[in-house]
Amino acid sequence: MARIDRDGVAFERPALGSLHPALTARLLRRAVGMLLGSPADLEAVHLERMLASLQKRRDRVSLPHGLTAVTDSRRVGVYRGGGPRPRRVPAVELAVPGSVQAGGWTMTAKLAPAAAFSGTAGPLESFLDADAITGRLRVRARRPGDRLRPLGLGGQKKVQDILVDAKVPAEDRDDVPVVCDGAGVVWVAGHCIDERAAVGRATRRVVHLRATREG
Q1: Of 26, 32, 45, 133, which sits most exposed with the smallest number of CB within 10 A?
Q2: What is the pLDDT of residues 83-139, one digit of tens each?
Q3: Handedness of CA 71, 72, 78, 84 (dihedral sign)
Q4: Which DSSP category does 22 fall into?
Q5: What is the DSSP track for 23-62?
Q6: H-type helices in the chain, by residue range?
Q7: How many of the other CB atoms lie within 10 Å of CB of 4?
């Protein structure tokens, strides 16, 4: 259940939260023990605070010997020092067809005939009209002033507002991949596409984008 490295032990929050509290407590004690060699200095009050963190959206608990327990929207972890910093998707070019690493994501683009578009897409994939794309595609984090016309909304909306309305925690918003072409944002991964790049009756070719999170 855990991702383990020299700086910390992290559990997927849904999996950890589904366990009986007694088993959750044992796993957290074991995580501390792996980092310190022994959980002997972990007091009951520390364990109670870590368990209470599972009832909060995000939290930080200071532990003995400079360890920190961090709870966020995805993970519960015990780390040396202050814990991991929020990630930001770097700006990289995405060839069509092609695949790139962008921070903790892999973004893949495939070119296909319009018949490949079934009308449905998963939350981390999209289909765009290949001939509506201007210039080259790039993957990056949001930037101030980013906006698009979400398909079906009938007007412009800031990327910032889209993420706020979707209740994406502030610390995670820079880790949401934004795909742009020469004219602006075409897809906010996991949220919406721009109507100018949407597949329509005149579409001849589609670009199939898929985002995969790495851990």
Answers
A1: 45
A2: 877 789 999 999 999 999 998 899 999 999 998 888 778 889 999 999 999 999 999
A3: negative
A4: H
A5: HHHHHHHHHHHHHHS--TT--HHHHHHHHHHTTSSSEEEE
A6: 13-17, 21-36, 44-53, 159-165
A7: 11
155: DSSP letter: S
Q: Which residue is associated with the tokens 């984008």?
A: 209
Amino acid at position 120, single letter: T
Peptide bond into 97 cis (omega under 30): yes
Hey, what domains does the chain have and what are their CATH numbers? Answer: 2-80 (3.30.465.60), 92-213 (3.50.40.10)
Contact assessment for residue 181 and residue 133, using Cβ atoms and an 8 Å cutoff: yes
As given in the structure block, the two tokens for residue 66 are 């400079």
Q: Name which of 91, 176, 192, 201 is nearest 136 in CA terms.
A: 91
Contact yes or no for 108/99 (Cβ under 8 A): yes
pLDDT tens, position by position, 164-190:
999 888 888 999 999 999 999 999 999
Q: Please say whether the beta carbons of 175 and 104 come within 8 A.
A: yes
